[in-house]
Amino acid sequence: MTRLLVLRHAPTAWNTERRIQGRADIPLSEAGRAAAAQWRLPEWTAGWQALASPLCRALETARLLGLDPAPEPALTELHWGEWEGLRLSDKTRIDPAELARREALGLDFRAPGGESYRELQARLAPLLARLAAAKRDTVAVCHRGVILALYALAADWTMIGDAPDGLQWGCAHLFRLDSTGAPVIERLNIPVAA
After folding, report:
1. Could you give the residue numbers annotated as active site?
2. Which among 40, 109, 153, 155 counts the fewest CB atoms within 10 Å?
3. To the nearest 10°, the Cα dihedral for 44, 49, 54, 59?
């Protein structure tokens, strides 16, 4: 059994402004740095290998947690294409009817010019298989979209309608990987705030 603990990066200015970050390499805000500096991973993760999305907000969060993460491209956030930098509430740039039509596609939701959650799951699959084969417990600092895609795999959730469980974004989430790399939910919403 291989365990994978995933954690979303600390806040950025774009999080505060409710902008879609996607692949934009937005750094942590001062408030985000202060928050991450107070976070503590569970003691039982001591000695686990650390990975992070190569985007600076994830790498910096990992380092503020005292980790020395290897950048892992598979953990990069969902690509939001033409909508990156926008607010979903900006009705002058994103038509609400078009947004609703796309959201109804669940795993196949895709912003114009972007990536679907199903494609993100396919991007994650080789990494999960490698981690399972190596049998090395891992902490991964990544993004909301990556965690949602991983959770959807584990929960067999199509991403249509509400998630079966409420994920809290300031917490860590523990998965167990079977021998093929398929994730199984072990424990959600593990507090990291000191």
Report:
1. 9, 77
2. 40
3. 50
